[in-house]
Specification:
- There is one protein chain.
- By secondary structure, the chain is an alpha/beta fold.
- It folds into 4 domains: 30 residues; 154 residues, Rossmann fold, CATH 3.40.50.360; 151 residues, Elongation Factor Tu (Ef-tu), domain 3 (Beta Barrel), CATH 2.40.30.10; 149 residues, Nucleotide-binding domain of ferredoxin-NADP reductase (FNR) module (Rossmann fold, 3-Layer(aba) Sandwich).
- Helices cover 34% and strands 20% of the residues.
- It has 16 helices and 17 strands.
- The strands form 3 sheets. Strands 1, 2, 3, 4, 5 and 6 form a 6-stranded parallel sheet that branches. The protein has a 6-stranded antiparallel sheet with strand order 10-9-12-7-8-11, with helices on both faces. The protein has a 5-stranded parallel sheet with strand order 15-14-13-16-17, sandwiched between helices.
- Strand 3, helix 4 and strand 4 form a beta-alpha-beta unit.
- Helix 15 packs across helix 16.
- It is globular, with a radius of gyration of 25 Å.
- The protein starts with a helix and ends with a strand.
- Bound molecules: flavin-adenine dinucleotide.
């Protein structure tokens, strides 16, 4: 019995030591041997010189873990080929310093982990890269782009272009958080930093697909509450960050759950989706503590569909619903709950990677659904009156979902749009011709030669709309038409730009 008791004691002590060690290693951000969770696990790699990338990587890991995802967090140099090839989702946070150089804890990754991997090794992998840098240097985010290039050569797919963060710009980090929401399926995280909003008001709002096949989409026009729209307030390609508010119904439901009174106006911008356990805690707290326990609602981003000379800031917002058919936070606020003339908290975010190059450079604009918003601003841009523009657009039904068709028609008549190709998936002759084009990406191959001619003439390609399906399909079609290397050179020269969500 004594031996047995001693063995149990020693065994328990060893388990206790192992748990402490594991906890310590986790805090250090190091994956513990045997804990790498395989394909389901999101691998987060970071390369940090001053600690900023490490901090953001840790915040990223924390956010994904809170959403129930398995993550492995490692400095880039500690990622081995074997782990990399097992990973289906890879997030990289990479600083650049000097003239495009890699930080010390990331400088061996390309030569070591990627050596020996061929062009198909990572074709199952989805990658998202956050580049930290300083735009006053020539090779802004240079190391992040080197990583993209090296992974691309091994077949990896990219959820979006490298998200470039200039001197830790908050808005770019909020944009990164958007993708973390998409990856984890939880879009209700608080922002790491709160935008400084201005007050705008909705002056007009119209559902532009009342007979549409898909969810309702609204054309929304906004004006600043103070001052007026000046020519340089934004550029085609920019986006807005909106600070949504809770609907009155959401506040009432929360008050019912809470079971005690608190002034409803105090809850307007607080996140009210909380668990029953948390609610029990809140019931006993005074108002101030309760408000401190409820985080701020997160922002939402929308592409600006107009240019300042048109006199209003226009958006095209599609209603999104959750599994209980409740309207999404941002789309519900903008399309239904906010009244016309009610204050909208809004911030314009410059989006330089989606700004068009020279005025006379031809543009090929490709988008689906609400993606036409980001493309419309480029077509409407008076500064581009001399450049050729070609629009590819896909939606569901021509009768119900042909967004901005009057504008497109007018621009075709005036010659501002040289070519227009549209496709509507639900109108396609499915049964008779199962291989007939259905989606916007299917329109590209039949126009391959003309696209090659436009690109040879210096055209830039702008893609806006769905991340799932469309963006990948367009990328694959363009790689076939132009060659993967040429497409990558275009991206490097800012002639292949994507704003996909
Ligand atoms: C750069 C950028 C530009 C954008 N431009 C536009 C635009 O011009 N027009 C526009 O309508 N949207 C645009 N979006 C998407 C927009 O920011 C919101 O993600 C979208 O309105 C849904 O937010 P929500 O708060 O209404 O829904 P949430 O409250 O976030 O989500 C409600 C439910 O819908 C699901 N969900 C969330 N987003 C989507 C989605 N995109 N598709 C399907 N289900 C979803 C969630 O998982 C959840 O179950 C853009 C996003 C980015 C990053």
């Amino acid at each position: 019995m004594r031996y047995l008791a001693a063995s149990v004691l020693i065994f328990s002590y060893l388990i206790f030591c192992w748990l402490c060690w594991r906890q310590y290693r986790r805090k250090q951000g190091v994956a513990v041997a045997g804990e790498i969770e395989g394909a389901d696990c999101i691998l987060i790699g970071y390369a940090s010189q001053t600690g900023s990338a490490t901090r953001i990587a840790q915040q990223t890991a924390q956010q994904l873990e809170q959403a129930g995802k398995l993550v492995t967090l490692l400095p880039l140099n500690q990622i081995e080929s074997e782990l990399l090839t097992q990973t289906a989702k890879l997030l990289l946070i990479a600083s650049t310093y000097g003239e495009g150089e890699a930080p010390d804890n990331g400088n061996r990754f390309i030569a070591r982990a990627l050596r020996g991997l061929d062009a198909k090794s990572l074709q199952h992998q989805q990658v998202l890269i956050l580049g930290l840098g300083d735009s006053s240097y020539d090779y802004f985010c240079g190391f992040a782009h080197q990583l993209q290039h090296a992974l691309h050569e091994r077949g990896a797919h990219f959820m979006a272009d490298v998200i470039e963060v200039d001197r830790l710009d908050d808005s770019a980090l909020r944009h990164w958080q958007y993708y973390l929401g998409q990856l984890s399926g939880n879009t209700h995280f608080s922002d790491w930093s709160k935008p400084t909003y201005e007050k705008w008001g909705i002056v007009a709002r119209e559902c532009i697909n009342p007979n549409g096949v898909g969810a309702s989409a609204f054309h929304i026009q906004l004006q600043p509450m103070q001052g007026e729209i000046t020519p340089d307030l934004w550029q085609a390609g920019d986006v807005v960050e909106i600070g949504p508010c809770n609907s009155r119904a959401a506040i009432d439901t929360f008050l019912q759950r809470l079971g005690r009174p608190i002034a409803p106006e105090l809850l307007i911008t607080r996140s009210l989706s909380i668990s029953d356990e948390k609610l029990v805690e809140l019931k006993t707290q005074d108002d101030q503590l309760l408000l401190e326990s409820l985080s701020e609602l997160p922002h939402r981003e929308y592409s600006i569909a107009s240019v300042p000379s048109e006199g209003s800031l226009d958006l095209l917002v599609r209603q999104v619903r959750d599994a209980n058919n409740q309207l999404g936070l941002g789309s519900g606020w903008l399309t239904q709950y906010a009244g016309v003339n009610q204050t909208i908290r809004l911030r314009i975010r410059a989006n330089p990677h989606f700004h068009a190059p020279a005025d006379s450079c031809p543009l090929i604009l490709i988008g689906n659904g609400t993606g036409i918003a980001g493309l419309r601003a480029h077509i409407a841009n008076p500064a581009r009156a001399n450049g050729r523009q070609w629009l590819f657009f896909g939606e569901r039904s021509e009768l119900g979902d042909d967004f901005f068709s009057a504008d497109v028609h007018r621009w075709q008549q005036s010659g501002r749009l040289t070519r227009v190709n549209k496709i509507f998936s639900r109108d396609a002759p499915l049964k008779e011709q199962p291989n007939a084009p259905r989606y916007v990406q299917d329109l590209l191959m039949p126009n391959a030669e003309e696209i090659q001619r436009w690109v040879a003439d210096g055209a830039a390609i702008f893609v806006c709309g769905s991340l799932q399906g469309m963006a990948q399909g367009v990328d694959a079609a363009l790689a076939k038409i132009l060659g993967a290397d040429e497409l990558e050179s275009l991206a490097d020269a800012q002639r292949y730009c994507r704003d996909v969500y």
